[in-house]
Amino acid sequence: MNFQTLSVMALWGATVLYAIAMVGYAIRLARVADAKVQATQFVTAGGGDAPLAAVPASDRDRTAEGDPASAAKALGIARSSTMVGIVLHGTGVLARGLEADHVPWSNMYEYTISGSLVAVAIFLAVQRRRDITFLGAGITGLATIALGLGLTVLYAAPESLPPALQSFWLVIHVSIATICSGIFGVSFIVTGLQLLRDYRDSEPRVVHNRVVRPIHRAGVRVIKGRAMRFLEAVPSAAKLEALAFRLIAVGFVLWTFTVMAGAIWAEHAWGRYWGWDPKEIWSFVIWVVYAAYLHARTTQGWAGRKSAYLALAGFGSLIINFTLVNYVFQGLHTYAGNGM
Amino acid sequence: MARVKLDNYVVPEAPRLGVRGWLRWMWRQVTSMRVAIILLLLLAAGAIPGSILPQRPREPAGAAQFVRDNGWWGEVLDRVGLLDVYGSAWFTAIYVLLFASLIGCIIPRALAHYRALRAPISAVPTSLDRYEYREVGSSPDDAAAIVGRAVATLRPRPSLLGAISGYRVRVDERVGRAGTETAIAGDRGHIREVGNLLFHTALVGILIAIAFGALFTYRGQAIIVEGRSFTNAVVAYDTFNSGRLFNSDRLYPFTLKLDAMRSTFSASGRPEDFTAHVTLTEPGQASRTTDIRVNKPLGVSGASIYLQGNGYAPDLTFTDSDGKVAFDGPVIFLPKDAAYTSTGVVKIPDVTSGEQIGIKATVYPSALGDGTDLVSIHPDAANPVIVLTAYTGDLGLDAGTPQNVYRLDESKLSPVRDAEGGVATLVIRPGETLQLPKGLGSLTWNSLPRFAAFDLRADPSLPSLLAFAILALGGLALSLFGSRRRIWLVLHAHDGTTVVTGAALAPPHDTAVAEALARTMAAAVAKEENA
């Protein structure tokens, strides 16, 4: 078995394990949410004297929805699949680098497998210090999609580096960009949860417009309904906002570095530090949107939902920078042609 | 008749803002955070069209073609600056307003922060019991020695710089619940604002450096064929652009000779390495040989020489019908695809007799196919073939208007036809001599050297730009990660020893504050010496 087969097989293995982990985390989240909802119901019913633990274990087993044992089992499966998954994922990325004989982030496929590895690694690293299990389903889901798309759509056979990429700046500039994508990816999930939780907790707005009203009503029904019950197991919107901010703050500093390192590399390779190439334009857009987010979250009238939408727009720009810019717009970062 | 009123107040007697009032109001708006956010979002949205539509500075031909293809619609887009977004008035207006807002924000904040740095920090709370991080220690030393050690740890440098980099410290003698006590307060919450101000000031610096660079920079393109040289002077460049304040006398008169252009490709035709072997001769110095590669520009006296392209430049000789050599030398062929299928033209105005001659040609480095129906399958010159068409007539050179050397103006030319009356398509290989139809003359392909395309550029703003970028990054990191910690120590004299009670306050995520408190306490009670 050569490195290439090893890499692809390990990555497929990781994809499957992440998918399993995602289901596990999702089940766990739903169970915990159910338990929380039931606990409040018990408390109300018993006049505040009957906490969940007071109910006999056999009774608790019968109330299948709030089953703590199955929540723990799901969490165990999810955690162990994520652990084995990241080992396989890391093996796949490493084997890819060895096969290609250069750092594994020189094209879209390699960037995808490395970026998703960073996202999962960041999740596990933060998990060691504080409990962010509620993010598990989102992170492993994102990693499953990224790996699946990478292996099926973006896959490119390993090749030697074209002259334009033969620089140690590839190691610095692109690795930091990859890490940023991972961090912004995690923050995207946190911000998404923050908005959902915020909408679930708050009183819906009164809409008078005849066209918007039915859509709005349906949205409110979904967000307040059973399907979104898992949000009960997620921290409060304020806590999620604080977490998202800390992630974006780190991501923003690293992104600033990425853009600066890119400018220095461009000065070396192309003889200009900034040329409004599509990749540069979108990197600038990402930077400016996240800068707007950082200002907005401390500004009256913009803090909360509005700034959260800016954070989502920032991640949207990141995705556009990675997809549309590589496929649709013509620029120097497409790594096609004669490589000069 | 009633007097015309310019304003439209509901209450006629309401006080008017006046011109100064309105100006002040506008300045308030521009410097408000809400407007700054909107300007940032406008800047992001305004930058996007530049990635979708062809931009004049980057691809002038593409932009012109876009206008032609889209009729009045293209015309409108061009007029509103969407084909040169980053040079357009509205984009400039956005970032100028943004920087005005930024400057209007940082100057008052910097002044306020300077005053805040000199003002005393708030005193130690009366009771430290309610704080999460708390430590108690004791020392046989007197309060003065402990204060000295604690302050030295919190703020190693006593100057204003120390106040910025370390804790700001305040020491009080006061009467607390347990009698007389000495209270030391340390606060480093200001470090974030320092970083914030540094970051935004550095952004202004970056903008100034860019503007400065644009005035003094120059950039030129020069194509050199193997074995030939280039002397650094404005006339020697194929294209040359410079900033308004650039003085061409400042061009350093070195000579660059291209000894060899090495292009290495994999078996599948992917480029693996491009290296230009050159000899550089600087005035008053011995020549030296060196290499220029894609990511390795050559620095010469403040300027840099970049390898930006390469291709083939077939060396051709044209002998006219009278047996005179009318053209002799290499012709630059521009690559059109990854397999280096390249096109070029030869303009031969000086024929002894008859009409001027032009040749349009395509070189296939590794030709595959029959007759004139060829493709190049690899960029290396394994089987080079030139397919050409000759023209006779007026090349249009005598009018004196500058012409594109890579294009033939066919308006006054007619193609040379073969015996059957069709356009004659001719094939030539290296070393061969081809007789053109109707005795027009003969073309000899002597050799197939490569050429290298170089960009030469000097931008005196680069060092300051880098410095400001580093300052901006440092400031940003400080403003986002700087710790907002407060450390308090209260000293009581008790039975000949001094009891030190310490507490710390920090945001919930900052758990490392416990170590900072422990460090300060250890230094205060001088634990190391005792242990």
Task: Please provide a written account of the structure.
The complex is a heterodimer of chains A (340) and B (531). Chain A has 340 residues and is mainly α. Chain A has 2 domains: 1-160; 162-340. Chain A has helices at 3-45, 57-62, 68-100, 108-129, 136-154, 168-201, 212-224, 237-269, 278-296, 305-322, 324-327. Chain A starts with a helix and ends in a 13-residue tail after the last helix. Residues 46-65 and 335-340 of chain A have low confidence and may be disordered. Chain B has 531 residues and is α+β, with helices and mostly antiparallel strands. Chain B has 4 domains: 22-111, no CATH class; 120-188 and 483-530, TATA-Binding Protein, CATH 3.30.310; 213-312 and 453-469, no CATH class; 315-451. In chain B, strands 14, 15, 16, 19, 20 and 21 form a 6-stranded antiparallel β-sheet that branches. The longest helix of chain B is centred in the N-terminal third of the chain and has 30 residues, at 89-118. Chain B is elongated and about 120 Å long. Chain B starts with 17 loop residues before the first helix and ends with a helix. At the A-B interface, helix 8 and helix 9 of A face helix 2, helix 3, strand 8, strand 11 and helix 9 of B.
Main attributes of the structure:
heterodimer, A: 340 residues, 2 domains, 0% strand, globular, disordered C terminus, B: alpha+beta, TATA-Binding Protein, six-stranded antiparallel beta sheet, five-stranded antiparallel beta sheet
Outline the fold blueprint.
The complex is a heterodimer of chains A (340) and B (531).
Chain A: H1 3-45, H2 57-62, H3 68-100, H4 108-129, H5 136-154, H6 168-201, H7 212-224, H8 237-269, H9 278-296, H10 305-322, H11 324-327
Helix pairs in contact in A: 1-3, 1-5, 3-4, 4-5, 4-6, 6-8, 6-10, 8-9, 9-10
Chain B: H1 18-30, H2 33-47, H3 49-52, H4 60-79, H5 89-118, E1 133-139, H6 143-154, H7 160-165, E2 168-176, E3 179-187, H8 190-216, E4 218-225, E5 229-231, E6 239-242, E7 255-265, E8 271-281, E9 288-293, E10 298-300, E11 303-312, E12 315-320, E13 325-330, E14 334-335, E15 342-348, E16 356-364, E17 367-370, E18 373-376, E19 385-393, E20 413-415, E21 426-428, E22 433-435, E23 441-447, E24 450-458, H9 462-481, E25 486-494, E26 497-505, H10 513-524, H11 527-530
Antiparallel strand pairs in B: 1-26, 2-3, 3-25, 4-6, 4-24, 5-7, 7-8, 8-9, 10-11, 11-24, 12-13, 12-23, 14-15, 15-16, 16-19, 17-18, 19-20, 19-21, 22-23, 25-26
